[in-house]
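Q: Could you fold this chain for me?
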Amino acid sequence: MSKVSVILGLNYGDEGKGKVSTYLAKDCDIALRCTGGNNAGHTVVFNNEKFVFHLIPSGILNNIDAVIGNGVVIDPKVLFEEIDVLKNYHVDLSKLHISTRAHLIFPYHILEDKLQEDLKGDDKVGTTARGIGPCYMDKANRIGLRVTDMYHDDFEKKLRRNIQNKNAIFKLYNYELIDEDKVVSDYLNYRDLMKPYVMDTVSFLHKQIENNKNIVCEGAQATGLDMDLGDYPMVTSSNPTIGGIQTGSGLSSKVIDKVYGVCKAYASRVGEGPFITEQKNAIGDEIRELGHEYGATTKRPRRCGWMDLVYLKYAVNVNGVTDLALNHLDTIGKMQSVKLCVGYKFRDKIYDEYSDDIIGYENEVEPIYEEYETNYEIGKINSYEELPINAKKYVERIEEYLNVPVSIIGIGPENEDVIIR
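A: Sure. Below is the predicted structure, expressed as structure tokens.
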């Protein structure tokens, strides 16, 4: 029987989903990406080589089929930069498949992204300026162009229309204008380069399920950045929760076997937005350096703080998480002690769940912490039984609070540095 495993971030991204996905892909036939664009990045250390993925599922390193699903927005320039890198490592790219229904990012989307951030002033979201939001805007506005559109006779006409309309807006704001002829020429070239990979991925995936093939769905971003369920407006422009996996792939809920929620033994966030357990002090700096917390895509230093079990409980419930993947247990072992947030105090009321009551007032929320001794060395431990007692106490408290088993534990930077329970 086919097994479909979903990998989702439970905080704000950068939890190490790529590591978990690539590890699980060893026992799968297909790696699938369903949402987001090249604003996401998976950094994977595989066979002693470091890879940074932005669009292509990292599971392709296991020599399996890799699918970019219909919910992804694709910048062809970035796509072929990744393809060129993988070719240098002799990765079998004949197994890469791109959905006909995926939407395309164009240079005008990137320029729109920058313009919109400028116009927001102090209320900017802190996007990666990769054109993701404007591409999804065009998708919702029904003027977006999909991969399939490149192979229709009216593609150039529609593209020129879009460029002319966007340039009219840029001109109003004294912004640079898009070179219409160059963009058309570039994308006609991309059309030819992309053709070997393009297919109806929805039909492909369902046929593979009928043939009892195993699929791992690689999530992008995380629950806290979900357009509907995250910290709006400081969110991404798609649904990186379980619903986005289904709409971004065409898979139904009945075929999903496991939902792995990925988190770190502490917490981090890139960009603007609430972060109740953030440590704007030497502790946050220490976590950042010990965990090498700098963005895979932007290189921006991440904001760091303590693990927030209250928020994680919300993320677990929203996504129907069946198993936890806990990364960076080795990192907190380098500290003397760490804290877990087990409740919130807000206006003399105690909360043990994430509530709409506090949205917009996060700066007034006082975290309630439990402190745990760490100061241990994991090294190359191979089993849970070998873990130091302080590490076990921490893991088991997380399991108790969230009522979900920690099935995967990351204990180092390499792809194989994991403990499976």
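A (continued): The longest strand covers residues 337-346.
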